[in-house]
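cron nightly-structures :: item 1 of 1
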Amino acid sequence: MAEMLHEGKFEYLQSGEGQPIIFLHGLMGTLSNFRAQVDHFGALNYQVTVPLLPLYTMPLATTSVTSLTKFLKSFVDHKGYKKVVLAGNSLGGHIALMFQKLYPELVAGIVLAGSSGLYESAMGNSYPRRGDRNYIADRIRDVFHVKEVATEELIDNVFAIVNDRTKAIKTLAISKSAIRHNMAEDLPGFQVPSCIIWGRQDAVTPPDVAEKFHELLLNSELHWLDECGHAAMMERPTEFNTILEGWLERNKIKA
């Protein structure tokens, strides 16, 4: 059973015991995005954690992909993990890749779903207009092929972010940082096993982005999910979990 833990600057979901898997949410994401994965893998031979990334609490001058990666390193140190699997959606995937670049000795495997890091438009270079909830709701639904994933609660959360001036500024700062930190030149040097799980209907990071990741990550598998958009772990959780479980087993990533 997953529990929410607060320890110093860290707030995170945790479930299970064994080989650590850290799931990393995206720019507009929350811990609940990975609820299906926490429950599934926590019941197997894994300790699953989903840390809340400090997207809006870092000083503006240091709000960047690199700072978020260093925060993740401090979380890994806090937990005492020696080797982790990093599974990230959107910005979370980008942080996983940056972590591999900076701390390769700590990474047992990387899982990417709708990741930024290659595609310059993935994080956006503009911000939705504020105050118009219907407009925001439509933009959020566009992210998903399975529209029911865009719950009213999710829409309310994003609407609150875009109407908070400080959060809006920091969101733009992270987006611009993500565009600056293109990983194309780094990826061919990564030896770590990588699993790419992508929605064929992803309109944010289109399918050709997944193919480019697969080309550049030499030790990678690419798996497609049909009738699925940008958040495969939310839209097709059962299929996502089956693919990930099989990949972990093939690569003997166990405690």
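cron nightly-structures :: done
The chain has nine helices and eight strands.
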